[in-house]
Design a protein that fits this description.
The protein is mainly α. The protein has 14 helices and five strands. The chain has helices at residues 9-12, 46-53, 74-90, 96-106, 110-125, 129-142, 148-159, 167-177, 186-198, 202-211, 213-218, 230-239, 246-273, 275-303, and strands at residues 2-6, 18-20, 33-36, 55-62, 67-73. Residues 272-304 are annotated as: Disordered.
Amino acid sequence: VCILHFHPSMRRSPTIFSCDVSWISPREHEREILFARSYIHYINDDQKNNEIAAWNAKIESEDEHTQTILLTWARYDEYIQQTLQISAMWKNPIDLNLAFVLLFEIYTDIDTVNILLGGFHIWKKKRNNEQRYNEKKKQFMAHRCCNHNINLFSIFLFENKIIKATAVEFATIHTINSGLPIKLLLKELYTVLFFLYCSKNFMHLEKYIDSNGVLKNKLKKNYKSSKLSSRLFAILLLQTKKKMDAVTLKLGIWLHFTKIFVLSQSNTLDRQTNPKKMARERCKKNNSKLVSKSSRKSRTDQQF
C-alpha cells in the first residue's frame, strides 16, 4: 500500500491548483480529488511556471506492507535552507512568515533580503513605530492579517515608498496569496533547533522555543533565562522521538552528550587553572554540609 503524505506547502504553491489519485493510480478513470486550491494568478512564462509547480517526493517511512511518500513543494525546501542562512547571518531565527514573503513574493536574493531586514529592524526601534502599529492593529485584523511582523513590515515598506499599495492592502494580498500563517512541522522545527544548538545561540534558541506554542507545550519550564540546559534539550528530544526520524534523533543525542563532555572537560580545566574557584567551591560544600548537620540536630532536638 502506498500512502501519499501531502506537506502543507503543496497547497501553498500558486501553480499547483489541485491533486487527485491519478498521480499514483494506474487506472485512467480514477479521479478522486485530494485537495484543490483557488486560482489566484498565472505567470505567462512556462519555465517559471514549471519551477513554481515543481515538487519533491521522498520516502518518509516504510515497512513490509506500507510505504509513506512525503510530497513537498520544491520551493519550500529551498526556502527552509535560505531561512537558515539568513538566521545564521543575523544570529537569530527570523519570523518564518516574513522570510517567506521576502524570499518568494518580493526578492529572491538573500543579500537584498538582509539589507531590507536591517532597515526594518532599525525602523522598528525608532519613533515608537511598534506603538503606532498597535493603534492601527484593528485595521489589519479586520482583513484577517494576523501576523504582526508582516503588518509592521508592510507599514515599513509603505512609509519608505518601496510599495505603491497601502500597508493594509499589501499585508492582505500577501497573507492570502502566500497562504499565511506558515507553521513548520515538528521535524522541520527541530531542524531549526539543531541549527541554533550547533551554532551555540542558546539565548535565541530559548526565545524561539518561547515564541513557538507547539514546542513550549513539549518542554518543562524549569530552564534559566540565560541559556538552555543540555539536560532540557535531551528531554525535548526524548519526549518527541516518535515524531522524529532515527537519524535526527541520533544526531541530537550525540550533540547533547558531546556538549556535556565538552562542558565537563572545560570545567575541570577551569578548576585546575583557577585555584580561587576551587577554594570557593570547597567553602560552598563545607557550608552546605554544616547547614545540613545543623538542620538534622534541630530536628532531633524537636523530637525529644
